[in-house]
Each structure stands twice: as structure tokens, then as C-alpha cells.
Amino acid sequence: MPTQQQDSPHGVTATVLAPVLSARAVLRRFWPIARRERRWLALGALLLIGAAAGDAAAIWMFSVITDGALTTGNLSAFWVPALEWVGLVVLSGGLVFAGHYLTARAGERFLLRLRDRVFAHVQTLSPDFLERRKHGDLVARLTSDVESVEALVNSGLVEAATSVLTVVFFATGALLLRWELALAAFAAVPLFAVVAKNFSRRIGTVARKERAYHGELVSVVEEDLANLAVTQVYNRQDTEKERLHRHGLSWMSTKLSLVKLGALYSPSVHLLETVCVLSVIGLGTWEIAQHRMTLGQLFAFAAFLGYLYPPVQSLGTLTLTVAAASTGSARLIELLDARPAVTDAPGARQLRGARGEVRLERISYRYPGSPQWVLRDFSLTVYPGELVAVIGASGAGKSTIAKLLLRFDDPVSGTVRLDGLDVRDLTQHSLRSGISLLPQETAVFHGTIADNIGYGRDGATMSEIVAAAEAADAHAFITALPQGYDTVIGRNGHGVSGGQRQRIGIARALVADTPVLVLDEPTANLDELSARRVAEPLRRLAGGRTTILITHDPALAAIADRTVVVPGGQDPHPAGDDPRWHAETLRLPQVGRPG
Ligand SMILES: Nc1ncnc2c1ncn2[C@@H]1O[C@H](COP(=O)(O)OP(=O)(O)OP(=O)(O)O)[C@@H](O)[C@H]1O
């Protein structure tokens, strides 16, 4: 299935529309998720159908009052049917209320479950897969596309059921009153169907464009907000404003096309409806003149038709809902069908109490879709408690080693072992419970500093958080903040410096307290002073743990027990011309415990 957007090598984004799916395909795929809601949907639909039956009976009362009281002037014939009529209105009002509430509740619960399910699936996908996507487009899929599926699977189905049965009630009423006239009126129904089909086809095409443009717009907003500082530094506000405006214009024009089609649909159907009702009144007048019908019956007949056409119209509108839902569903299915790069093997084992021996055995790896080998026959053993610096040219594959160890993907050949166990035989959850990763820039969530440090381990206590912050040399700066550990930091670590953010990351890793630690260029984004300040906490963090320290910084590499070079990459010398790299360090063996 094609993706919604594809980036050309030149960075120009082409919009690729979602494929067309039939209503049946959408239902087959998503109906199982509505399983728990089915009885509530059925009950809601039954109540709404009951309300429609109440309305049909009320119309009958109208005919009784017209013929019994109105045309004869007999007031005593008015009260009983009038009271019955009021009773019916109260009853169907109650049924409408309960029916709408139940179906809406079922719809919302379906929405919640579908969104949870899609998000849970997204969490199984590799970070590389998600990085290739535009985040804004993923956001659109998890929000508005999920809603469009709900509109079909729940509300749509209930509407279809109630509309069909409502049509049956009012059609039966009309047939019972005067079947010849009723058949003449029904002759118009195929006309409604033709109009609805025509509109739904056109709306379907525009809706697919609208969804795609919406995804693009959300992506641009997301990217612009994330990169606001760069925009301001390079004075590119106008460029970004113009870009957002352009995407906004595309979305606006497709939305207006949708509105135009929707707005044209209603009057077209209304015109059709008026012509039908007038033809029936004309025919009915003739029937009255022939004494085959009373005035009350003609009024009731016209009322039945008045109630009959709206559900016919809403069945037509439903085809428009299907068109929109088809687009949203296709985009969700594309995401749901994306297979995770790795899954737990059947019978995968739990890793418990790891000692922390890491062994890469003749690993070869290339990224999916890339012809280029990143690692060829690469081997490395890191013994429990050992701190090994991994260096190499840019692009040599150092970070790739970290990804393979954390099992974001599996090597094409070779084996990654933890404590002698092939990581493919372990559950991903238990494997990752044994390894912490400290990247170039610590990711922070919108929340307090305490929450961000405690993120390392579910259930971490405040005293553990404070102890970790002390060991990470973060306690002093945290307590100097007016709110201390309760200071809220934004998603981008707003309010704390790069070095402080890394120390929060170190504290988080200390809280996690895993036997294996991967430090992926932890000082790369820091100035020399901050980098030096972080070195000691890093040493404390690494103490007693198996640590792989990926770095370009010779001073930081000096804290390692030994250094390993990853061959390849773009730079002929792993550390450039920096004389601080000790030639002998670079020649240390890659496999085997150092003497
Ligand atoms: N998701 C990806 N898809 C395709 N190729 C990738 C991906 N990530 C990295 N690469 C490529 O794999 C190679 C190794 O990347 P990696 O990030 O492991 O290098 P590195 O040694 O850590 O580099 P640096 O020191 O610059 O961080 C590079 O050529 C890179 O372009």
C-alpha cells in the first residue's frame, strides 16, 4: 500500500493519496474492535427504531384528529387522540434520548479502543521506521483518521439500521393508507439513489485529497514548532509562514470543495423531495375529488412522505460518510500493517539478574532498503563491569551497534549475545530492562524534573530520585531552581541547559540501575566545560556496570578501560588529527578480555 507522502531525494514532497476501500473492507477490518460495544449499539438502534415507530403512530393520530374533529368541528373527538399524541411524543422523545446516548457512548468507547490499539502498534515499530515518517502525519492518523473510522463503524451502522427501518415504517404507513398513491411516491426513490451515488463518488475523491493535505499541514505545524529557534536564528519566519500558508491554502480549497459538494447535495435532494410531495398532493387532490380518500388521510400521507424522505436522504449521506471513512481507514490500515522490525520469538525467555556480558559475534548489518553494509563481520566482547570506549569515523556504524544491542533491529548475520544468550531468544521487554541508553541529547517529557528522573524505573521513590540526582551532580542546580524537583520542564527541556539536561539523563539511568549501559556520544552537544563536568557523573554511572561508551571525545574516552575502533565510515582517521588519542589505545584487541 503506498504511503501518503513520499520524499524525493531533493526533499520535494509529493502527495500520494490513500487507496480506495469499500465499506465492507472497512467493516471487516474494524468491526471486531467494536465487539464489546455491539449489544449497546444494537440496543441504541432498537430504541431509535422504537422512536421512529412512535413518530409513525403520532402521524396516525394526526389523521384521526383531522377526520374526527377538524373536518367535523366535533371537539369531544379531539381530546383522546390529542392526549395519545402527546403521550407518543413524550415516549419517542425518551427513546431518542436514550438511543442517541447509548450509540454515542458506544462510538466514543470504540474510538478510545481503536486509538489505543493503533498507538500500541505504533509503539512496537522501530524508531527508524517512525523517523522516516512525518510526525504530524502520524498525529493526524491517530486522531482525525481514527474518528472517521468511528463515523462509519458505529454511528454509520446505527444510522443505516435506523434509517432502513424508519423507511420501512413510514412506507408501510403510506401503503396502508393508499397503496396506489404510495407506489407512485416510491417511484422517486431510485432518483435519490442516483443523486447520492453521484455525489458520494465525487466527495470520495475530494475527501482523499483533504485527508492527505490535512496530514501535511499538521506535519508542517509540528515541524515548525519544534524548529522555531532555528527559524528565528536564521530569520526564516516569512519562509515558514509562507510554507504554512501554502499548505493551509491547499487544505482550505479541498475542504471548500467538500463543503460545496455537501451544500449542493442537500438542496438537490430537497428539490427532488418537494417535487415528489407536490406530485402526491396533486394526485391526492384528485383522489379526494373521487371520494377515495379523506382530507385527514391525505395530510397523514403527506406527513408520512415528509418523514420517509429524510431517512432516504440520510442513507444517501451515509455513502458520503463511507467515502470519508474509507480514506481514514486506508491510512490507519497502512500503519497497522507496518510490521515491527523485530518481534519476540515464540517462547522467548525472560532475562533475569543479568551479569552484563555483551558479545557481538561476527555481526554484519545493513539498513533495510540500503545496499550499503554498515558493519561487516564485526566482533566485540565487553565483560561484566568493563567500560569500553567505541570510537570510529563518522558513519562507521557505532550508533548502529547500540541499536542492534537494544534490538531495534537484528543483524543480517552474526549474533548479539547478553550473558551468552542470543538476544533474539529473549523478550524485548526483559532485554531492555537490562540495558540503559544515554543518547547525545536526553529526551525529556513535559513534566517535573522528578518525573523525568523517575522515568528510568516505574515506582522509583523520591529518595531514590534525589540520590540519583546527587550522584549525577544534578542535585545542586535542581534545588537552586525555585520549584526544585517540582520544576516543570517542557518537551524540549526548556529551562535547563544542555549539560543539566544530560545530568538529568544520567540520574535517570542511575534510577534505572541496569547492568548494561550504552552511552552514545553523551557529550557531543556540550561545550568543553559542560562536557568536563559531565565526565565524573558518567564515570560514577558506569561504575560496576558493563558500559559501551560511543564517543568522539578523547578526554572522555580516557575514562574507559579500553578502546575499540569500528572500522569504515567517511573519515580516514577515527579521531581526525587530535593528538590526544593514544596510538596504543587504538591498537587494543577487539575481542577477548584485556590482560
Ligand atoms: N535509519 C537508517 N537508514 C539507513 N541508513 C542509516 C540509518 N541510520 C544510519 N544509517 C547509515 O548507517 C551508517 C552508520 O550510521 P551510524 O549512525 O551507526 O554511524 P556512527 O558511526 O554512529 O556515526 P556518527 O559518529 O556520525 O554518529 C551511516 O552511513 C548512516 O548514514
From TrEMBL:
Topology class, membrane: Multi-pass membrane protein
Domain ABC transporter: 358-593
Chain ranges of the ABC transmembrane type-1 domain: 42-324
Highest taxon listed in the record's lineage: Bacteria
Compartment(s) where it occurs, according to its Swiss-Prot or TrEMBL record: Cell membrane
CDD domains: ABC_6TM_exporter_like
Main localization, broad class: membrane
GO molecular function: ABC-type oligopeptide transporter activity; ATP binding; ATP hydrolysis activity
Gene3D superfamilies in the record: ABC transporter type 1, transmembrane domain, P-loop containing nucleotide triphosphate hydrolases
GO CC terms in record: plasma membrane
PROSITE patterns, per database record: ABC_TM1F, ABC_TRANSPORTER_1, ABC_TRANSPORTER_2
Region (Disordered): 567-595
Transport recorded as keyword: yes
TM regions (residue ranges): 12-31, 43-65, 85-104, 181-199
One Pfam short name: ABC_tran
Keywords assigned by UniProt, alphabetized: ATP-binding, Cell membrane, Membrane, Nucleotide-binding, Transmembrane, Transmembrane helix, Transport
SUPFAM superfamilies: ABC transporter transmembrane region, P-loop containing nucleoside triphosphate hydrolases
Bias (Basic and acidic residues): 574-585
Family: Belongs to the ABC transporter superfamily. Lipid exporter (TC 3.A.1.106) family.
PANTHER family: ATP-BINDING CASSETTE SUB-FAMILY B MEMBER 10, MITOCHONDRIAL, ATP-DEPENDENT PERMEASE MDL1, MITOCHONDRIAL
The protein, known as: ATP-binding cassette subfamily B protein
